[in-house]
Design goal:
The chain contains 13 helices and 14 strands. The chain is an alpha+beta fold and about 500 residues long.
Length: about 500
């Protein structure tokens, strides 16, 4: 059997009503029991007090000078007390009966006792009450004047007025409980609606995001202060939508960029080859070299995509060995000398020998990609500085250029896959925009961190910090490096420059 699903507002209202009902019931029951118990104790004390007052009244009717009793007054007191369920018997000092309610009117006494007993059994079943007799000594001036027996129902006795009082109290508690329940249900419905509206909105927003509408935003209502957690939920949804939108933009741009980067050289090669096959053009060395260069561009794009696929497909295996970063930097500089000369750039390697345990090929790729990035975005007659120096347990590699720099809004994204700050310029320089992504993955795999400082129009400075004896983060785990590339990276601002730091 399928269970019918209800709206969250209905569930919240029903749940709130049940909780309130249980709470009010418990409070009412507890209050009733406590009040009844205290009232019983009060009535019991009152009956004891009344009995003591009767003794005082009786004693006042004794004349010590002639040792006589005012029997008429005692008779009045005894009959008055009888109506309240008190049966009095008075003795003189010799224990001779001078007044007895039963002797006076035994039928009335028995009837009153029967009525009291019946009424209490009816109203308080299980009480097991009974009439008890209490003995008192009547003394005046430290001399015994007589004795008295007072019998009354115990442990307590409720008159009709007492029962009416308790009934009225129960009615008040019941009415108060019902009123409170109604008010609580109304308040619960309003609160449930207040809570369910943002939750429903969050659900609808998430559904639209799941359907591919990444432009949708939760847009938390500032006037709705139902709960901090709901506001945080809305912010989280908006943040997720923004990230998905950025990822979708990157994916679309990647498709466009890859299509453009492949289409242009393919079209150039195709048109030139077609012209040479149809003998429109002669197959000169220059034209064949042009075709070769275009094919090289295609090969480079495919190679970059293949590198990224390998990094994302599985854990990066590091072949560790002693590596001198200074020698590695000098080798990279030598490899770039033709391009440096072509752009009239000066490249300097400074610092000191710094040996770490790492993968030489991977670390070479790090320096190569950073220098390649510096060469691409440096203007003519600029300078590139590669610096290596030891800092305690760390080794810091710095690649600094005097190029076009990076805009502040682009800095948090430069390590993202396929992100390129200047797409038109990158089409000229080549590449699919994954060089820095690969650099970041390799640095993290070596237990280090990478950061960048840049000012638009003034140049950039990339800083890589590696441990001399690093504790590798992923040697014996199943965490793929694709997670490293995909995870969010905390950003920190530093004075004097725009700064992003990737923390391991």
């Amino acid at each position: 059997m399928k269970h019918k699903k209800h709206k969250i507002s209905t569930q919240l209202s029903a749940g709130f009503a049940v909780i309130v009902l249980i709470t009010i019931s418990v409070i009412s029951l507890t209050a009733n029991l406590l009040i009844s118990h205290q009232f019983e104790k009060y009535v019991a004390r009152q009956r004891e007090t009344f009995a003591e007052q009767l003794i005082t009244t009786l004693l006042s009717q004794y004349n010590s000078s002639n040792q006589t009793w005012n029997l008429d007054y005692i008779h009045g007191v005894g009959m008055y007390a009888l109506k309240d369920g008190y049966i009095i018997k008075v003795y003189d000092k010799d224990k001779n009966i001078i007044w007895d309610a039963e002797n006076h009117d035994i039928t009335l006494c028995h009837q009153i006792m029967k009525d009291i007993h019946t009424n209490m059994e009816k109203k308080r079943p299980g009480l097991k009450g009974s009439f008890s007799t209490y003995h008192y000594t009547l003394s005046q001036d430290n001399k015994i004047a007589g004795y008295a027996d007072i019998s009354y129902y115990g442990p307590y006795y409720f008159s009709e007025s007492d029962f009416q009082f308790l009934d009225s109290l129960n009615q008040i508690l019941f009415i108060t409980g019902i009123s409170s329940l109604i008010l609580a249900v109304i308040a619960g419905m309003l609160l449930a609606k207040r809570l369910s509206v943002p939750l429903t909105k969050a659900k609808e927003t998430a559904e639209k995001i799941a359907d591919g509408n990444y432009q949708i935003r939760y847009g938390a209502d500032k006037t709705n202060t139902a709960a901090l957690e709901l506001a945080q939920l809305g912010q989280a949804i908006d943040h997720m939508a923004e990230n998905l939108e950025k990822q979708e933009d990157v994916r679309r741009q990647l498709t466009s960029d890859v299509a453009h980067e492949l289409r242009t050289p393919v079209a150039n090669v195709s048109s030139q080859l077609e012209a040479m096959i149809e003998e429109v053009w002669e197959p000169t060395k220059e034209r064949l070299q042009s075709c070769y260069d275009e094919l090289g561009r295609i090969s480079g794009i495919i190679s970059d995509l293949e590198k990224l696929r390998q990094i994302e497909a599985s854990n990066m295996v590091l072949e560790k060995e002693p590596v001198d970063l200074l020698e590695l930097a000098q080798a990279v500089k030598t490899a770039f000398e033709p391009e440096l000369a072509k752009k009239k750039l000066t490249c300097m390697v400074t610092g000191e020998s710094a040996i770490i345990s790492g993968d030489q090929k991977r670390l070479h790729q790090v320096i190569f990609n950073l220098v390649s990035n510096a060469v691409k975005y440096s203007t003519e007659n600029g300078q590139i500085l590669i610096d290596i120096h030891n800092s305690g347990k760390n080794v810091q590699l710095t690649v600094k250029d005097q190029g076009i720099g990076i805009a502040k809004e682009d800095i948090p994204l430069i390590f993202e896959r396929f992100y390129r700050t200047d797409r038109s310029r990158n089409r000229k320089t080549g590449g699919a925009g994954i060089g820095l992504t690969i650099v970041k993955a390799i640095v993290l795999a070596h237990g280090g961190n990478i950061s960048v400082e840049s000012v638009k129009g003034c140049g950039s400075c990339f800083m890589v910090v590696l441990l001399k004896n690093p504790a590798f983060i992923y040697p014996n785990t199943d965490v793929p490096h694709s997670d490293v590339l995909r995870r969010n990276v905390p950003l920190h601002a530093h004075e004097g420059a725009v700064h992003i730091r990737v923390i391991v």
